[in-house]
TrEMBL record:
Species this protein is from: Diversispora eburnea
Protein name as annotated: 11170_t:CDS:1
Residue intervals passing through the bilayer: none
Matches recorded under SUPFAM superfamilies: TPR-like (SSF48452)
Superkingdom of the source species: Eukaryota
GO molecular function: mRNA binding
GO biological process: intracellular distribution of mitochondria
Any one cellular-component term (Gene Ontology): cytoplasm
Domain CLU central, first and last residues per copy: 1-117
InterPro entries: CLU-central (IPR033646), CLU_prot (IPR027523), TPR-like_helical_dom_sf (IPR011990)
Length: 395
């Protein structure tokens, strides 16, 4: 909603100015919207004019954060019937994802650098954005992409044939569909990449890991070149590519999680899912301490997004308890599993299979904790008795 409201306002400001003023207008608009913590009172700039000429009074020259925010709130209220807070920029908005969305919607190309939204002593800039940061303004065109229905129907027929038990014929149909995609769309096209990815998932589920990884790598390369390295489709394919080889998969996951944070910020459900996946991969590598950190971060994320008593949060506690048990910290694992059990019994009830499964693990962890206490107590008694019996002599 904020992106669409900002688009309407900025288009109106750009419509009345000549092209030489465009970088100054865009940078000032972004400073008023996103750079108020860096500079609460940004001043508009104008291009250097010929000596003796007067500077015309365009609308963006009178724009301030105090006038821009009410305009955005009014447009959102009129168009979406939704009322947002007055201080929404600092309380409800993730600034980097919002900046990305505004640039994509309006065709703004920014200089590739780190933009600071909070004032730093080392930064000599007066504002977050300056006119030199605006590299270009390109048109955005909406169009209906034509689809090759025969290629898609062939692919669906291949999946249906495999489901009916004829694997060889099904694979042949799917590969024919891939050839049709490559001939009609070309190799570098999102539709071809989706076909690569679908084939990769099929071969992965049928344990042809090397073939699956090869197709998935092709899907990642094509989507990064056609949709951008930070596009949602490319990041999703990177997540799917993190299979088979654990160490290489962790590098793919790290790369994907970085761009996911750029696109959506830290608090996102898919970010928690990625943390779970990384935790499981670290468990496979016997790095139990490292896996606990990712499971804890996923649990915190889900608890903030979904609330304390939600089955997603309960599942995060359950996975965290398993990770702690693998690491040998049975006391902490018992506390985490108790939280999961309390959540499941409130959400599902005591007779639900998910609650029963958690109850079984809770009983096992309780038994292990009691056994550890008894073992520790026994060792302590043995040590104490041996010290009492031993005679100490002075040298």
């Amino acid at each position: 909603m904020i992106t669409r409201a900002s688009k309407r306002i900025l288009r109106g400001l750009l419509r009345e100015i000549p092209i030489t003023y465009v970088p100054h207008c865009i940078s000032h608009f972004l400073n008023c919207l996103l750079g108020t913590e860096f500079n609460p009172n940004p001043q508009p700039l104008t291009p250097e004019l010929i000596i003796g000429s007067e500077n015309p009074q365009y609308s963006y020259l009178s724009l301030t954060p105090a006038t821009l925010i009410p305009q955005i709130r009014e447009i959102i209220l009129i168009r979406f019937r939704y009322r947002i807070e007055e201080d929404f920029v600092n309380t409800e908005v993730r600034k980097l994802p919002l900046l990305r969305e505004i640039c994509l919607r309006l065709g703004i190309q920014l200089s590739a650098q780190g933009y600071h939204f909070v004032k730093k002593k080392s930064k000599k800039r007066p504002t977050t954005f300056v006119p030199d940061d605006i590299v270009n303004l390109i048109p955005t065109v909406k169009q209906a992409t034509p689809k090759y229905s025969f290629a898609e129907e062939t692919f669906e027929a291949g999946k249906l044939t495999i489901a009916q038990g004829n694997r060889d014929l099904g694979i042949d149909l799917m590969l024919q569909s891939l050839a049709l995609h490559e001939q009609s769309y070309g190799f570098l096209h999102p539709a071809t990449a989706k076909c690569y990815s679908a084939l990769a998932m099929y071969f992965y589920h049928h344990e042809d890991i090397e073939i699956a990884i090869d197709f998935q790598k092709k899907a990642v390369v094509v989507l990064e070149r056609t949709c951008g390295i930070d596009s949602v489709d490319a990041v999703h394919r990177l997540f799917e590519n993190a299979i088979g080889h654990t160490e290489l998969g962790l590098r793919y996951m790290k790369h994907a999680m970085y761009y996911w944070e750029v696109i959506y910020g830290q608090l996102h459900p898919d970010g928690a899912t990625a943390d779970h996946n990384v935790g499981i991969m670290l468990q496979n590598m016997k790095d139990f301490e490292g896996s606990i950190k990712f499971f804890e971060r996923a649990k915190d994320t889900n608890e903030i997004i979904f609330g304390k008593y939600n089955f997603v949060t309960g599942e995060s506690y359950h996975l965290l308890a398993k990770a702690l048990a693998f690491a040998g910290d049975y006391k902490a694992a018992l506390n985490a599993e108790k939280c999961a059990y309390n959540i499941f019994i409130k959400v599902f009830g005591p007779e639900h299979p998910r609650t029963k499964e958690t109850e079984i693990l809770l009983n096992d962890l309780t038994s292990n904790a009691v056994q550890n206490i008894r073992t520790s107590s026994h060792h302590l008694n043995v040590t104490t008795n041996s010290l009492k019996k031993k005679k100490w002599t002075k040298k």
